Amino acid sequence: MGGDVFIIDDPLKPEDAMSDVKRTAVNHWFGGTLLSRLDNKDKGIILVAMQRLHLDDLTGYLLRETAGWDHLELPAIAITP
Questions:
Q1: pTM value?
Q2: 43-55: burial string, b at 16+ Cβ within 10 Å, e else
Q3: Per-residue pLDDT at 49
Q4: Residue 73 burial by Cβ neighbours in a 10 Å radius (0-12, 13-18, 19+)
Q5: Are 24 and 54 in contact (CB under 8 A)?
Q6: What are phi and psi of 50, to 5 degrees?
């Protein structure tokens, strides 16, 4: 089954963030499985909500290897002026 809207919430556990194998598996799952299930590749929506765990986590992979993402970065600690 496919869909028009996919929401990915924390695809990688913090304890798995230092594993090259687990990070690569998540990135390959996204590129090889999830993208193929979008019913409409031009109008479909994918939302990834996650904490940054590693430079090569899913967010890092998407920003580095694919185009067209809107990136909203919210700091864990608020910075006051």
A1: 0.84
A2: eeeeebeeeebbe
A3: 95
A4: exposed
A5: no
A6: -160, 160
If you search the block for the tokens 């998540």, which residue do you land on? Answer: 26
pLDDT tens digits, one per residue of 22-71: 999 999 999 999 999 999 988 999 999 999 999 999 999 999 988 889 99
Take residue 69 and report the two structure tokens written for it: 């993402």
Single out the residue of 49, 51, 11, 15 nearest to residue 31, CA to CA.
11
H, E, C per residue of the chain: CCECEEEEECCCCHHHCCCHHHHHHHHHHHHHHHHHHECCCCCCEEEEECCCCCCCCHHHHHHHHCCCCCCCCCCCCCCCC
Can you give the pLDDT at residue 3?
95
